[in-house]
Structures are given as structure tokens and as C-alpha cells.
UniProtKB/TrEMBL annotation, chain A:
GO terms for cellular component: plasma membrane. The keyword Zinc-finger does not apply. This is Xylose transport system permease protein XylH. Its main location: membrane. One of its GO terms (molecular function) is transmembrane transporter activity. It comes from Meridianimarinicoccus roseus. InterPro entries: ABC_transp_permease (IPR001851).
Automatic annotation (TrEMBL), chain B:
The keyword Transferase does not apply. The keyword ATP-binding applies. This is ABC transporter ATP-binding protein. Residues 11-251 form the ABC transporter domain. Keywords: ATP-binding, Nucleotide-binding. It comes from Meridianimarinicoccus roseus.
Amino acid sequence: MSETASNPVDERVKRISPLRRALIRPELGAMVGTIAVFAFFILFAFDSGMFNSQGVLNWATVSAQFMIIAVGACLLMIAGEFDLSVGSMIGFAGMMIAIFGVTIGIPMWAAILLTFVLCIAIGALNGFIVIRTGLPSFIVTLAFLFILRGFTIFLPQLIERKTIIGGIREAAEGDWLAPIFGGKILGGLFVWLGDAGLIATFERGTREGQPVVDGIPMLIIWALALVVFGHVLLTRTRFGNWIFAAGGDAEAARNSGVPVTRVKMLMFMFTAFCATVFAICQVMEFGSAGADRGLLKEFEAIIAVVIGGALLTGGYGSVIGAALGAVIFGVVQQGLFFAGVESSLFRVFLGVILLGAVILNTYIRRMITGER
Amino acid sequence: MNTRSSHAPIIQMRNIEKHFGPVIALAGVSLDVYPGECHCLLGDNGAGKSTFIKTMSGVHKPTRGEIVFNGAPMNFETPRDAMEAGIATVHQHLAMIPLMSVSRNFFMGNEPVKRIAGINFFDHDHANSVTMSEMRRMGINLRAPDQAVGTLSGGERQTVAIARAVYFGAKVLILDEPTSALGVRQTSNVLATIDTVRKQGVAVVFITHNVRHALAVGDRFTVLNRGQTLGTAQRGQITPDELQDMMAGGQEMATLEGSLGGTV
């Protein structure tokens, strides 16, 4: 801010008010939304059990699920592409874990690593086709939405004659890698909190005296770690600048020496990575893989990202915003359940908030670029 | 203009011919540019200006003719080669991304990094301070380096692109019609920028079809017409009307020959 050499200052440029400057942050809408959502449920559903330890764990887990896929979708969207195959990828990855680890019976750590390699390779294939053909990623990944879902239903029927494969928890018993996805941490802290009477404990049965919530699921740790990683990558590294540039104007970015192809490929692969993390955490928790897992998750990820302030056209957005979008999503979905509201109304809410977010984002975009 | 006698030309284009199949786009064009001069390349649409500067910046390879850069014959295989040698082109449709901040745009593809705990981080402080000071040198006071490029006027965007090219070591700066889409005030800002850059010793090739813009900053003027050069004139040796006539087709060539010093 140097207004000292005052002569060339353009007198037609108005001072920008702090409010307007704050509005130009992509995550502002999501911040306001998050506060509003919490305020609403604290006012109207505080006694419903939503804010005791189980309640918090409940919506925090759901939010963390959304967060994991939203981080991938967010970076990919800022890089100018979509991935509609995220939901199918979740189902597919879970099924692969079950087939490798249960049906074939290789050690769970190897099943997990194999699944990662396979799914990231499919993500790379998505990216390769989009970049090579120049087709919209919308269409290419829509094709993979069906291809992957089809295989997810077909393979278990072919191999096991059923669409749900169980026994994953047993297969993961004693494995060194599986707890990183399915485990819980800080158990001791929760025991202490329970003993101190700060959180609820079981009052009868075999687990009497133990806290109802016995640790933080690794799912939540993954979500927070991915958000921090995505945010730092996007805002604090040169690669982050390339992500913005690739999505803002791929041609201009190429002219300036940005490796646009590499950036987009890596973002497709990262999105697949996030979907696989989601899937592995889920199958470890449920102990089974189902052919219908992850249905509609691609849209939920995109909605969280858009609520977080990213532009559908690319080049603009925030990982923190997407994470807050995921929190709004999770809190409202579970909050309505706690408040005893008919759950179908959640979809109405979703549609309304999506529309509102897109309109707000368009307005913010005009403010940034000065378009009319 | 004593730069001509005291310096060697930084780039010389000798009898450049470029054929596209049966079409002769350039039929032997010669031009030399000295450090610190603004050499205006004028011509009507279709005169071959674009082909000529694309040859200079490594996009096209000349069919015949020679490019001498810094005293040595040069063969640019790709635009990247020319860029690395120090020939930068600022296009009419700029390499600027409106949604990104000025400093992010300024360093796009050349981001400064700072190592913290073995990880390379984008050095925003450095990028911001360089952007602010480079823009101030060009006479533009940014409100803040994180201001989006989209909020800048067309002239200011041109200036950011020029400042960026100069900062990253351009010795020859090719400006492809930088003023054609601008208003009067913005045009004068860009012309002032060209003057600033020239005084830093950068050779500027300024492509335009506006004689008044050319005469405002140009040291020398080369007119292209139908793939041929109609000669290079020094500042002060030619009037706006004469330049205009040459661009229009050289009907007055006979009367011009004298004033052009036989270079036709």
C-alpha cells in the first residue's frame, strides 16, 4: 500500500471498503453459512443430543466424509476440471478392498496399497482422456461414473454371487496399515474425560463406565490433514499458483511456462486418491463393501465446493471454503435428523443453498474481475 | 540518435523470406534493432507484420534469410528458445489471468520460492514487494499486490505484461499492437511505459498501424507492405502524412524516396 507518490493515483478508483475487501474472499460465504447453521441448531435443537459427545461425533464424522472428497473436488475444480466419477470411485475402491483382502485373501495392507494404485491410475486415465481429446471433463468422467459403477456391481456378483462382501474387519485384524483408516486415536483422553464426568459414559452392560465416544475416528484425522495439505498446497506453493493458472486460463498459463497438462493430471489423480481414502475408511468402519456405496457423492462434493466459494468455471476457490461447505452439509443433514425434521426436507435445503451459493459466487466474480 | 553508432544492433533480420505453401508472406524483409531504441513496425492489415514478428520470436522459421542475435547467427527452434535468449513477446490478447492477483500473475511460471523445513514455499512477500516496486517504476501505483488483474484497465494490464517481461530479462521486447484496443488515456500510459522500458536499455519492437502512436515514441520506423519493406526512416525525417501514405500502399513512393535517404 503505497500512496506516497500520489500523482499517478487514479482519482476514479474508489477506496475499497473493508467490507467489500472481505467479500472478495472466496470462503466468506461459507464462513457466514457455517456460523448461521450452528446458531440455528444451537437455538432450536440444543437439547436434542446434537451437542453432547455422541452428537458431535455423529455430525463431525459425516462432515469429515464430505470434507475428504470436497478437498479433491475443490483443487480439481480450481484447476478447471470436474470429476463426476467420485461417487462410483468410492464404491469401486471399497469393492476392490473387499475382493483383494477378503475374496482373494491377500494381507489387508497389500489390498489397500493395490487399491490406491489402481484407483489413482483410473484417475490418471480420466485426466489423460480429458487432456488428450480436449473433451469436457464433465462428459469423460460421466462415462466413468457408469463404467466404474457397472464394474462395482458386476465383479462381486461374478466372484461371490452377491453385491455386498463382508468380513473386512476380520481380515484387517492385526494389520499394520488398516488402523490408519479404520482406527481411533486419543482413546485415553476420552476415558479421562469420561472419568471426569465431562462426557457421557455407559451406565450399564459390559462396557459400564467406559465413555460412549471412545476416540476420534481416523476418518476425521484424514479429513483435517487433507484440508491442511490442500490449503497449504493451493495458497503457499508454486504448484498452487499453477493450479489457479491452469483453471483461470490454460492457454495464458501455457504461454507463461506453466505445465498445465501435468497440473491437471495430478489433480485428477489427487481426486481419485481422496475418493479412495473415503472408501477405505468407510469399509473399515462398516466391515463390508457394498455395490451401492458412494451413490451421488460426486454431486455432494461439488456442492460443498461451490458453497465454499469456488467457481464452476475454474481458477478461483478455497480449500478452507470447501471444508466449511462440507461442515454445513454434515451439520444440517444430521441436525435435521436430531431436530426430528422430515429428512427429505434436507434435499430441499440442499437445492436452495446450492442455488444461493452459485448466485453469490457469480456476483463475487463480477466484483473481482470488474465485468458487468 | 547516437545509439546507432555507439552500439551494435541486438537483433538483425536480414532478407527474411517466409513462404506458406504458394503464398509469399514475407518477400525479403530486413530490419535491425538497437538496445534502447523503440523501433516501430508499421503496416496495414495483411502486410506481414505478424508473420514477421513470429519469425523473430521463434514461432515460424524463415524460409530464407538470416537472423543475427547479439552478433551471432541464431536459429530458434521454439518460442521457448527465443524467450530464453531474451526475446519476449507481449501479445494483444495477454497472458494475464483476470481472476488471479497481480503478483500471482507477475510471477506465473517463475514463482519465487523460499525453503522452510525442506519444502519449497511460494515466497509471497518477495513476490508482492517486487510486483509493487516494478509496477511503481512503470508509473502504476497498485492498490495492493493481491488486487486481481481483472480490476485493472486494459492499459494497466499491458503494463503489467511489459513489466513482467522486462523483469525476467527481456532484451528485445516485441509489443504486438499493444494500443489497438485502448482508449486515449490508456494508450498514453502504455506509450509512457514503452518510453520507460527503452530508457532501461531494452530494445522495443512496437507493432502498430496507428501512425500517431508510432510517432509519439518511435526512434525509427519500418513500414511493411504486402510482405516487403518500404524502408526504415529515422525520427524527424518523416512526416505523419508520409508514413500514412506508405502504409496505404506507397502511391507517393516517388516523392518519398528522397526523404527516406535511399533506403527503399
